[in-house]
Structure formats: C-alpha cells, structure tokens
Write a structure and sequence with these properties.
Layout: H1 2-15, H2 18-22, H3 45-49, E1 58-60, E2 67-76, E3 83-92, H4 121-128, E4 175-176, E5 182-183, E6 194-201, H5 216-219, E7 228-236, E8 242-244, E9 255-257, E10 260-274, E11 280-292, E12 298-309, E13 331-332, E14 360-362, E15 377-379, E16 386-395, H6 400-412, E17 419-421, E18 434-443, E19 456-470, E20 477-491, E21 500-513
Parallel strand pairs: 7-11, 10-12, 18-20, 19-21
Antiparallel strand pairs: 1-2, 2-3, 4-5, 6-12, 7-8, 9-10, 10-11, 13-17, 14-15, 16-21, 17-18, 19-20
C-alpha cells in the first residue's frame, strides 16, 4: 500500500506543470519525509496519517502570471486513518499587472553571470562590449531551428517614440544635455521630428581621428535591414558660402590641407521613409561639410530628423498628436465622387494659393484697402485669438451682387476648406480624424422698409474653434472638436450718383477651451493604485 501511495503521489506531481512540481519549499530532507510537508514526494500514506496540518497548502508557479495551475494540499482528518487530499485547479491572478504569456522562461529568474577568466574574456567582450547586446539572442524564439537565414533581414515594426535601432545600437541624434556641448547618447525616436544644435570641441591636429566630425560616424550603421544612403552634400566655406556638390556618392572624410581641416561635419539631416505598419524602408542623410583653421577650438553642429510615410506627400505637422500652440490649423477638402471610393478622401489637400492646406483669414495691410488686399492672407495659428480687417470704399457705380461675391472671396479666400484636422498629425486617409466646418449666416438688420433692398453684403467673418484636452491628465493633447464660421451680412443701399461711403470689413478667430474639469467626488478617468515590483519586467526595459 505504501508503494502504491508513493507511486500515486509521483503520478500526480508529474501531471502538474514542471514549475509547480519543482516548487515544494518544505521539502528540505533528501530522500526523507518532511513533517507536515504535504507536497513532499518522499512521504507515504502512513506518513500523511500522522500529519496534523499541511505547512504549504498551495503550490503555484510564478505569482506574476495571469493564469496558471495551482496544486492544493489538505488533510481529511475525518478519514480513518487521516489521509492527504490533492486538487489541481486553474488559478487566476486578480492583479491588473500580470504576465499573460512567457516567451522567455529564463526571464522569470535571475541567472548567475558568467565570471570572466583568461580563457573566456575575449568572447565576453565581444558579446557584451557594445552599447546594446542580447544575452542569449537564440533563446527568444523557441522555433529557432525552423527559421531560415532570410529572417535576419526582416524589418522591425516601430511604435511612436520607440528608439530607432541600428545593427550595433541606436540611430544617434546628438544634442546638448546639461550644457551646450554635444552628447552622442541621444537616440532618435520613431515619428519624433527633432532639430538640435550643440557645440563640439575640435582641433586641426586631431580632426582626422575624431569620429563625431566624420560622415562615416553617421552612416556606418544600418537601420537593421535598411542602409543609410547619402542624399546630398553641401560644402560650406570659411566665410559661410555654401555649394551643393553634384555627386553625393563619394565619402568625404576629414583631412588636413594647408593648415585647414576640411570635410568636417557641420550638420546632418536624416529623412526616414516608413510604411503604415511602422516599418522603416528607406533612410537618407544630407550633410553640410565645412572647414576649420588652427584658431578654431569648437564648432556648432546641427542635427535634424524627419519622417514621411511611403506613397504620401510630405505634410508639415502642427503637433504630434495634439496641436501645438502657435502652429497652423491644418485643413482640407472632400474630393468629388465621395463617398466612393473612400480611399481618396481628402486627397486634394493642397491648393495653389494655400500650399500647406491651412485654414487662413484676411491679413491686414498698411493701405487698409480691401480691394487691394484680396491675395493677402495669413494662416490661423492654434491657440491665438486673431482679428484683422480693411476698409471698403463703396461708390454709386457698384452693384450689389458682384460686390457680394467679391467680399465673400475676400473674407473666406478663393477656396475655403470644408474640413479641419482634429489633431496636429491627422493623416489624409484617417477619415474620422477630420471635423467638418459648420457655416452660419447672420444679418445685422432684420426689418426692412419699403425703400430698402433685400440684397445683403457680407461685412465680417467670425471663426470659433472649440477644442478640448484629450488623453492623459499628465500629458493632455489638444484636439479640435468643432469649427464654426459665421458670416455677418448687412443690407445693401444703393447710393445716389456722385456719393461714396466707407464700411469696415473684419475677420476674427476665437479659440474656446471646452474641457470639463473633474467635479469634486467624481473621477473622470478610472485610476489604478498599484505599484509594479522592481523586477517585474526583468530582463526587459
């Protein structure tokens, strides 16, 4: 009977997951039964009958898993003799932060690092000596044996703000940190347009050996499967004159010539092309090269990075994602044939008079003559309340209907947009990210006498932009909710011959924040009061 009970215990333990089977913390004696240790495989039925309780009533794997098997141990004291009861259940972790699946089991425990010796030092230096490394690159995929060599050339899918990886580390975008001096530790973030300037110490004697002033330093690392190509090279003389070189396929390295160090990098501009899936398919760099003399102790370098989605026209953004105060409101039109096909919605974004698809108003001029200022327009900047205007001189020869159309073109422009982007980075294909402009008409005079004409001429355009704070309370993003354009008209009165009069024509823009603050005792967003353990994501960052 003892042998059969022992075999049954072993059979049960084998059916449990390996992690649970190994976790019997009360099993301290080798090949002996530990008192009150119900999970000890060395205990027999006779031993269990002498137990008073189970010191470890439940055995689980890692407590951070969302769902796992759990072994429950208890004693049936009413049986004669008392016997152990075992149950295997599915345990669900109630915590909000839990691990759903394990793709790298060794990450759940700390492994002892390999100690460097004279025999393995070179191998460890090669593996861990760079800025970024993988401890066990082959262990991240369980089906590594089934992969072919072409998988190494697969592109990486990025999320917004993720550092752009290169073969050895990250794409560098030097920037000033504490002082104005350049730091090369700043990685470029995906879809994060940046422009930086910093100062770097140089000397003519050492310039040929300084990596940070060489073109090779900025293009020698490919972005995973994408090589960085040289798009253009501009050479700047000592007096500041710049010349664009015809060929950009020649690598120009710093060199000393007649007490000058030439071909040093003064500026780098990266341009990244990506797909809608977040894959980088092309990377190009434009350089500005210059020269220094012996008196120069430092140079100022400028760096820039921009992103363009493939098969789309580059559009200047006004925020990412929310609008930035002081940047233009982006606007567009619905093409003919909508809603079929949907794919071409907002394809006609750019106009000859409005190159960047912006919402504009009348721009005031020094002459204040409305008829001479028809082409003068200024973009509406987010968050800036604006007012502009001019004066219209009306003569007896003017007719109402032609003048009405002229004033409408003056106030609204040649082509007034139909939609505005709700976010500063809204793409043309994202239909729901665009807000239609609502139009209203108001008449200054509602009651007319028998001698008054029913013709109305527009005298003002008032645009109200309602916006709200969207997203996290820590970093809210400005989102446009609605745009209303109100045209105010007044009754036209034909002047007698030889008479003139002047009327003011005005345009204005008002921004209204309609964000609703949280009421006392009411939480606008659910909050989670939880703290992750310090090693929760080990070894991930």
């Amino acid at each position: 009977e003892s042998v059969r009970e022992h075999a049954a215990v072993c059979k049960v333990l084998i059916s449990i997951s390996p992690a649970v089977a190994k976790l019997c913390v009360c099993d301290l004696l080798v090949a002996q039964c530990d008192v009150n240790c119900c999970c000890d495989p060395d205990c027999s039925a006779a031993d269990f009958s002498l137990f008073t309780t189970c010191s470890v009533p439940i055995v689980t794997g890692d407590s951070r898993l969302c769902s796992q098997k759990a072994a429950l141990y208890s004693l049936d004291v009413e049986a004669n003799p008392p016997e152990r009861i075992f149950k295997l259940i599915d345990q669900v972790n109630p915590s909000v932060f839990c691990i759903h699946a394990i793709n790298y089991e060794k990450a759940l425990s700390f492994s002892s690092p390999e100690m460097p010796t004279s025999e393995n030092f070179d191998q460890l230096l090669k593996q861990f000596g760079s800025a970024a490394f993988s401890a066990e690159p082959g262990s991240w995929n369980k089906d590594i044996d089934n992969q072919n060599a072409s998988d190494a050339n697969e592109t990486y899918r990025y999320e917004y703000g993720a550092p752009i990886q290169t073969v050895d580390a990250f794409l560098r975008l030097p920037s000033p940190v504490v002082s104005s001096w350049c730091s090369d530790a700043n990685p470029a973030g995906f879809l994060v347009n940046q422009a930086t300037k910093c100062t770097r110490s140089v000397s003519v004697e050492k310039c040929s050996n300084m990596q940070a002033v060489s073109m090779l330093f900025y293009i020698n690392s490919s972005i995973l499967a994408v090589n960085i190509t040289v798009q253009s090279i501009v050479v700047q003389s000592l007096n500041g004159m710049q010349t664009l070189l015809n060929g950009s396929d020649v690598l120009r390295l710093p060199m000393i010539l007649d007490e000058l160090c030439i071909n040093i990098v003064l500026g780098v501009s990266y341009h990244i092309t990506y797909t809608d899936a977040g894959e980088i398919i092309e990377a190009a760099a434009s350089f500005v090269l210059g020269a220094i003399n012996k008196e120069a102790l430092s140079i100022q370098q400028s760096f820039k990075i921009s992103f363009t989605q493939v098969n789309t026209e580059p559009v200047p953004l006004s925020g990412n994602p929310g609008y930035v105060v002081g940047l233009p409101i982006r606007a567009g039109f619905r093409p003919q044939g909508y809603p079929f096909p949907v794919e071409i919605l907002f394809a006609a974004f750019f106009l000859s008079t409005n190159k960047y698809g912006q919402l504009t108003i009348l721009q005031s001029t020094s002459s204040q003559d409305c008829l001479a200022a028809q082409e003068a327009r200024t973009p509406i900047l987010f968050g800036y309340n604006m007012i502009s205007g001019c004066k219209l001189r009306i003569t007896a020869a003017m007719k109402c209907q032609p003048l009405t159309q002229t004033l409408l073109d003056l106030l609204k422009g040649q082509s007034f947009p139909e939609y505005v982007a709700s976010f500063g980075n809204s793409q043309a294909q994202d239909v729901l990210d665009w807000v239609p402009i609502t139009h209203r008409h108001i008449s200054e005079q509602r009651i007319y006498n028998a001698f008054q004409s029913s013709c109305q001429i527009p005298v003002s355009l008032e645009i109200e932009v309602k916006w709200t704070k969207y997203g996290s309370l820590v970093n809210p993003q400005a989102r446009i909710v609605s745009v209303t354009a109100v045209i105010t008209t007044t009754a036209w009165k034909q002047l007698p011959s030889g008479r003139e009069r002047t009327i003011p024509i005005t345009s204005s823009v008002v921004f209204t924040d309609i964000s609703s603050p949280a009421e006392p005792g009411y939480k606008a967003w659910p909050t989670i009061n939880a703290k992750l353990p310090f090693d929760f994501f080990y070894p991930f960052v």
